Amino acid sequence: MIRFYFHPTPNPAKVALFLEEAGLPYEAIPVDTRKGEQHAAWFLKINPNGKVPAIVDTNGPGGPETQVFDSTAILLYLGEKTGQFLGTDADRPELLSWLMLVATGIGPYFGQAVHFQYAAPEGLDYAINRYRREAERHLQILDDRMKDRTFFVGESYTIVDMSAWGWLDRVPRVLKDDRALARWPNLTAFMTRMAGRPAVGRVGTLMTTHDFKTEMDEQARRALFPSNFPL
Which residue intervals define the domain GST C-terminal in the entry (predicted)? Predict the structure, then answer.
């Protein structure tokens, strides 16, 4: 059994998608980040970085329990554990390259674009412009990659597709435009195909099963942006 710690955000969604696609038994445990639960001592023992997702595999190879945090690490761990969604041996270099592009490019730039547009003090136009432009640049890289392709790597569905899907689902929020993804037709086609996967629908249901806090009050700001508050 896998204990899966999540909040309804892109990185946990990727892991949920793997769990659903692979049919692995798991217990979904909500971590309400706007209440600061990610900073609780019990959770920091699982992920010292205080972020979701994280998993605890009670049947892992590391002993009685194996703890893994960071969505990319979890996807690789689960792929290697199950032997699924890793492509062929020949695909491995490209799989790692595209997986890391999502992890080190798409994720951080999308996240910072959202932060500076929705949470930072007003007047930081330079930062907003930089992160939006970088988000758009990375989207173009992915769109170019998907020209005349069904999957990002090789000829089969892999963890790269899952990882990209988690963030591409948030493009309207990242660019503050409900129709933003239409600018990248190959990614639009990819997301349409992904929407037809039953596991994607099940992830959508999972992400709405818990009543997470939605108010962005002082408690939430302190939990999400502790560096903005003096010690």
Answer: 88-224
d(CA 97, CA 203) in angstroms, rounded, equals 26
Q: Measured between alpha carbons, how far is 74 from 95 in angstroms, rounded to an integer? A: 15
Map out the domains of the chain as residue ranges: 2-84+203-228, 89-195
In three-state secondary structure terms, 56 is strand
- pLDDT digit string (tens) for 185-202? 999 999 999 999 999 999
CATH number (3.40.720.10, 3.40.50.2000, 3.30.450.20, 3.40.30.10) of 2-84+203-228 reads 3.40.30.10
Q: Which of 144, 113, 104 is nearest to 131 (CA)?
A: 113
Over 80: is that where the pLDDT of 230 sits?
no
For the segment 91-115, the average pLDDT, to the nearest whole number, is: 97
Burial code (b: 16+ CB inside 10 Å, e: under 16) for 42-60 equals ebeebbeebbbbbbbbeeb
Q: How many CA atoms lie within 13 A of 99 on its CB side?
A: 25
CATH number of this structure's domain 89-195: 1.20.1050.10
Cα–Cα distance measured from residue 24 to residue 21, given in angstroms and rounded to the nearest whole number: 8
pTM to 2 decimal places? 0.95
- The CA distance from 90 to 87, in Å, is 8
Name the helix (H) or strand (E) containing 196: none
Which amino acid appears at position 129 of this protein? N
